[in-house]
Amino acid sequence: KNMQEIKVLKKQLSESFDMKDLGAARQILGMRITRDRKEQKLTLSQEEYIKKVLDRFNMLDAKPVGTPLAGHFKLSKEQCPKT
């Protein structure tokens, strides 16, 4: 969408709702948002949520353990179950 369409939408929304433009989102639902326009990547991080959960269960000092799958394996959409 172009910027004019975005401006029109924001104007329409502001007529029905109290709102203000805070600029590009940096956080939503407890997830940190990182955007790299050059690489066309959007990253969501749940690091803070994970820390809260670990703290809640007194596991902030937990040590990592190995898993059956080596860390260098990359999972893809094609490997997901179809059902």
UniProtKB/TrEMBL annotation:
* InterPro entries for this protein: RVT_2
Organism of provenance? Taxus chinensis (Chinese yew)
Q: Which domain of life is it from?
A: Eukaryota
Q: What is the recorded name of this protein?
A: Reverse transcriptase Ty1/copia-type domain-containing protein
Q: Where is the Reverse transcriptase Ty1/copia-type domain?
A: 1-69
